[in-house]
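quick one
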Amino acid sequence: MATIPIFELKQVSQQFGQFRALTNLNLQIYPGERVALLGASGAGKSTLIRLLNGMLFPSQGEVWVLGRNLAKISPRQLRQVQRRLGTVYQQFNLVNNLRVIHNVNAGHLGRWSLMKAVVSLLFPQEVETALRALTQVGIPEKLYAPTESLSGGQQQRVALARVLVQNPEVILADEPISNLDGQLSREIMDLLKEMSEIGGKTLVTSLHSIEFACSHCDRLVGLQRGQIVFDVPPAALSQTMIDELWGVGQ
Ligand SMILES: Nc1ncnc2c1ncn2[C@@H]1O[C@H](COP(=O)(O)OP(=O)(O)O)[C@@H](O)[C@H]1O
Ligand SMILES: [Mg+2]
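structure w/ magnesium ion:
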């Protein structure tokens, strides 16, 4: 039996007013793949990630996620699909004035009742699970720390711990390391790769660093002005392809 792709884009275009951010994308991503989205600023990477997690619906074409056409399912079914996707952002997207445990526990929100979520703000629930996730990302001692007191690297670890608690099948990461410096970037990329390798999760991440894309992913998709210009394994990436991708549209 053929494997169903995690993501399938069929002739997808995205228009913002007069501006066309993505044009005729066809793309299939399969379970367990680690895909890097490469391209200059404005190439359409974030737009593509928002289409994949159902935050945005395409102007044309179809986006299929986990076997469902996102435009053809109910809001409830969409939430069920979204529960199986974890997203990590460049800006971490944490609630800064809450303690770390609450941001980690936000990974449960798709499953918890509203009552449990509210009670948890006063009496943190499932502390063991949160602590285990924070241990995995290397900052167990920050469980009750105010999130705003953490460094950028630590905040991105909290965002990863939240995804670990959510335990999705797919991790989408939109420039997860662009606000971090060298060593921290490596540690976060190592964690993402580990989550994908050990947890069997599919990873789709936009990156500025060719080096990390090649060392941590097994498939590189180049976007230029909203179009896919290459889709290759790291070994097939040439200097010409790199120059062309960043040389135009900058
Ligand atoms: N909500 C929006 N409204 C209008 N234009 C947008 C919107 N989102 C993105 N764009 C435009 O679409 C293009 C692609 O943006 P984006 O996907 O953020 O690129 P990247 O993440 O590769 O830098 C850019 O020119 C951007 O200005
Ligand atoms: Mg972006």
